[in-house]
Amino acid sequence: MKPPIEPPVTRDKVRELTKRWAYEPSTVGEYLHEGFNSDPVSGGFAFSCDRGLVIASTGGSCIWSGITGDVAAQHDAIDEFWRKQRHKDRPLAIDQVSVWHRAAIGALVQGLPSVADLPEHEREALPDLPRAEGLLIVLRGTLRRVESAPTEAAALRILAADDWLLNTPSEALAAHPCPLCQRLALGSSVGRVEVCDRCARHARCCDNRLVAGSNTSLFGGFIAVHVDDKTPCDQVTRNGIVYIDNKVCCMGEERIGGVYVAYET
Ligand SMILES: [Zn+2]
Ligand SMILES: [Zn+2]
């Protein structure tokens, strides 16, 4: 998978991107799609080349499809991309989300550390706190990544664009106290208990250097690198042992992709 395009996405930007991707840049040509091209919110541009079709929305989402030559299939691919984009961009109101989502957004907007810090009347309808706390962590992390202020509108845009996040939160999203600092953490809470994001950022290898783990590909694989110079850390990549505040913890690959940092209890 390739990263999205940095907005503002222009026709020229998508053309250049397709030229860089093509085997032979002279084969690049725009695929004109009247509806998609003229939709100012969810539309964008599409270019075909000898390697396939690049479709990009003005908001920065992008797909690289392997379809070459077949004009009808290319048209269908653009239609489908545009339909999904319109779904993600649809307006979502606060009364259309669940009580867990409303509580998480309330804590987010008020800058509270957790949903438990909300005034009683704003959380009394909640069937349980941990799933609302999990949502709060995910929303806060996503907003930080896209460098957006923690407003209700921004949170609703994130939820509209992600059906999984908008559904009634599953048990997998329930937060638990970090075993090292008691702040809220996501992930496994039994046996190998995952630490919070903040503690995870303090993980060090046996040479006392900060390390961060990542997947080696979209399909998994694990590598740890030193945070200061991005060189691989062979020790942590090999045995997963890290130290956080002098406690022995472990870092490795999640079963479903991603990386965990945990404390064995
Ligand atoms: Zn912690
Ligand atoms: Zn190291």
Question: Which molecules other than protein and nucleic acid are bound?
Answer: zinc ion
User: What is the tally of helical segments?
Assistant: 10
Any low-confidence stretches, pLDDT <50, length ≥5? none
**Strand element count:** 12
Summarize model confidence as the mean pLDDT: 92
For the largest beta-sheet, the strand count, sense and barrel status come to:
4 strands, antiparallel
From the alpha carbons, calculate the radius of gyration and give it in angstroms.
Answer: 22 Å
Class inferred from helices and paired strands: alpha+beta
Shape: flat
Order of helices and strands: HEHEEEHHHHHHEEEHEEHEEE
Number of domains: 3
Describe, in short, the structure shown.
By secondary structure, the protein is α+β, with helices and mostly antiparallel strands. The chain has helices at residues 11-21, 34-38, 71-88, 99-109, 120-123, 130-145, 152-160, 163-166, 197-200, 234-239; strands at 29-30, 44-49, 52-57, 62-65, 176-177, 184-185, 192-194, 211-217, 220-226, 241-244, 247-253, 259-264. A hairpin with a 4-residue loop joins strand 3 (52-57) and strand 4 (62-65).
